[in-house]
């Protein structure tokens, strides 16, 4: 029997008022209201070293910032910030938890239980999720989250494109360019559910190729040019996998690294 790695407390928790629970809409780029209009502002994190602030996505890309929310419903003033510290992520008082924090918890638990789980990062799109290794097939990776499993369908949301998908892990053997896996259905060896026809998949592939060739980055969700730079450098799928593996081997051992011939 196959063991599925899931956690009962792994869902994304929306950013909200710490008093009444009024949810702050995470809209971008077509925001109905500005930060100021919903009572949200960034304040100086000085004197708060213990917070372990980190950057990430919320209503667009953000540096490591501290948010102050004056609730439009009850006028309560709440503080919120993104952090990788477990005591912050597990704050029970209506504390927001986005995809990065969700996967931090999952990866920490998987490491403790010695379960093979790796992080998946789409290129030029701000999101992360995890894959777990099938207990029945050592080379088979599964995705529990249906939205992530069918990630190519998100290209129809109208918020931009991604240009690749990578899996990363401290073990170099588990690092891989998995772009092709997320552009195929399970019946063809990919990740997606068997609900998409060939024409739809080819349309998605063309959208990704077009975004990858856009030097401005304007066609991507994150408005970045990582895929374009890799294409210009003529990095194919195998080369990207080699670099990911080399980076995992070299992480923390030297300031600069060069790709070897192994």
Summarize the structure in words:
The chain has 262 residues and is α+β, with helices and mostly antiparallel strands. The chain has two domains: 36-97, no CATH class; 100-250, no CATH class. The protein is built from six helices and ten strands; from the N terminus they run E-E-E-E-E-H-H-E-E-E-H-E-E-H-H-H. The chain has helices at 86-89, 99-112, 146-149, 198-212, 226-232, 237-250, and strands at residues 40-43, 56-57, 61-62, 66-70, 77-81, 117-123, 129-133, 141-142, 164-168, 176-177. Strand 7 (129-133) and strand 8 (141-142) form a beta hairpin.
Based on the structure, what is the oligomeric state of the protein chains?
Answer: single chain
Helix content: 10-25%
Largest sheet: 5 strands, antiparallel
Strand content: 5-15%
Choose one word for the global shape. globular
Total strands: the figure is 10
First-to-last CA distance: 37 Å
Q: Could you tell me the mean pLDDT?
A: 87
Order of helices and strands: EEEEEHHEEEHEEHHH
Tally of individual domains: 2
Q: Which regions are unreliable across 5 or more consecutive residues at pLDDT < 50?
A: 1-5
Strand order of the largest sheet: 8-7-6-9-10
Number of helices: 6
- As a whole number of angstroms, the C-alpha radius of gyration is 20 Å
Classify the secondary structure makeup into a structural class: alpha+beta
Characteristics:
10 strands, about 260 residues, 6 helices, 3-stranded antiparallel β-sheet, 5-stranded antiparallel β-sheet, alpha+beta, 2 domains
